[in-house]
């Protein structure tokens, strides 16, 4: 199957004091039609910047894409699209849901007005037909009293309802790709579960490919087919969900897994990984995770690891798994604690 979205060697740098600081540093991944791909990693790893890059929503004057970077949608490059051309892709082909629905809904217009604007901008429908579609979509995402909600303002709805409205809006033009950036972190746990169920259901019904960005590996386990783990502007591991949970390879992934609280374990598993993600302007030499890694060798502090195949459709960038590093780390116990 051909990928719907292909991101190749994505580099994004931000301007700071006249210099451009590399922030996303050579990210590669593919999203296949209809799949749900999870993107996980701690705060500051570059998850949102990567998705804004794909959506063509980075601030032009303050950011720069790498010369060799490519973003291909159905095989066509999006890199040099004009603003108008990009706008066609956003909505018709891909849509994004943001963490805080309040910041992406306009407080001075009704839900219906905003949905109709969006629908008529992308689909050839009359205002009346667009309103019917808006109400239908609101019903689809489980909004009670959709006929009256359509005439209400964002502040009249609860956080969970607003997030449902965002999903309805994003899906109202049948995009092939939906990027959901932390769609549930602002919500309480029960509502979170409902929204995730809803996204999964809609994804199945419409065969929409979803890039689900989250801090939470538990969420990934529940709804995703495949996952990429990002650290310090790079992808450090990629695999299908079952594979990554059964056999996580990168010490960072293992650390993330160990910080998932478990109800069944006799010991509390909340061993957060010590230390923090390096800032883009303070990127260390070698593997960016080395300063936090219990398995790091001299090699890890001096050279960036290469990406190696470590299982079926399973890749990681870690010296423990490539020739030289494996020898250096020989004899060390390496297991999930
Ligand atoms: N517009 C910008 N200008 C300069 N730096 C930025 C900009 N946006 C993001 N960054 C920096 O890029 C890095 C990655 O940020 P990003 O928002 O992608 O992280 P994230 O993985 O989405 O984190 P979170 O989980 O907190 O949302 C951070 O160091 C951030 O400060
Ligand atoms: Mg983010």
UniProtKB/TrEMBL annotation:
NCBIfam families, per the entry: oligo_HPY (TIGR01727)
Claim: Nucleotide-binding is one of the keywords in the record: yes
Any one cellular-component term (Gene Ontology): plasma membrane
Key words, A-Z: ATP-binding, Cell membrane, Membrane, Nucleotide-binding, Transport
The ABC transporter domain, residue ranges: 5-257
Subcellular location: Cell membrane
Keyword Transport: yes
A Pfam family recorded for this sequence: ABC_tran
Record protein name field: ABC transporter ATP-binding protein
Species: Lederbergia citrea
Record SUPFAM superfamilies: P-loop containing nucleoside triphosphate hydrolases (SSF52540)
Source organism phylogeny: Bacteria, Bacillati, Bacillota, Bacilli, Bacillales
Membrane topology value: Peripheral membrane protein
A GO molecular-function descriptor: ATP hydrolysis activity
Family: Belongs to the ABC transporter superfamily.
PROSITE patterns: ABC_TRANSPORTER_1, ABC_TRANSPORTER_2
GO annotation terms (biological process): peptide transport
């Amino acid at each position: 199957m051909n990928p719907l979205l292909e991101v190749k060697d994505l580099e994004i740098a931000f301007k700071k004091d006249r210099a451009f600081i590399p922030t996303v540093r050579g990210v590669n991944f593919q999203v296949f039609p209809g799949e749900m791909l999870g993107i996980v990693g701690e705060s500051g790893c570059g998850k949102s910047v990567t998705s804004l890059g794909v959506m063509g929503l980075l601030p032009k004057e303050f950011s720069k894409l790498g010369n060799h970077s490519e973003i291909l949608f159905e095989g066509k490059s999006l890199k040099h699209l004009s603003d108008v051309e990009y706008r066609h892709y956003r909505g018709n082909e891909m849509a994004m849901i943001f963490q805080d629905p309040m910041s992406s809904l306009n407080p001075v217009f009704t839900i219906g007005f905003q949905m109709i604007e969006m629908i008529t901008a992308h689909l050839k429908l009359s205002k009346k037909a667009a309103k019917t579609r808006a109400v239908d979509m609101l019903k689809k995402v489980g909004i009670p009293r959709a006929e009256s909600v359509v005439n209400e303002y964002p502040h009249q709805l609860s956080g969970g309802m607003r997030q449902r409205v965002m999903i309805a809006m994003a899906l109202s033009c049948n995009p092939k790709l939906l990027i959901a950036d932390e769609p549930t972190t602002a919500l309480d746990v029960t509502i979170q579960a409902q929204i995730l169920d809803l996204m999964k259901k809609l994804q199945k019904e419409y065969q929409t490919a979803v890039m689900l960005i989250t801090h939470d590996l538990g969420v990934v386990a529940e709804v995703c087919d495949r996952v990429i783990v990002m650290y310090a502007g790079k992808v450090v591991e990629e695999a299908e969900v079952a594979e990554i949970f059964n056999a996580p390879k990168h010490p960072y992934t293992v650390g993330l897994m160990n910080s998932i609280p478990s109800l069944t374990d006799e010991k509390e598993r909340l061993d957060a990984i010590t230390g923090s993600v390096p800032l883009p302007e303070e990127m260390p030499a070698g593997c960016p995770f080395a300063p936090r890694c219990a398995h790091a060798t001299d090699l890890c502090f001096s050279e960036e690891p290469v990406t190696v195949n470590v299982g079926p459709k399973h890749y990681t960038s870690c010296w423990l798994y490539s020739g030289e590093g494996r020898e250096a780390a020989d004899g060390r116990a390496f297991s999930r604690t």
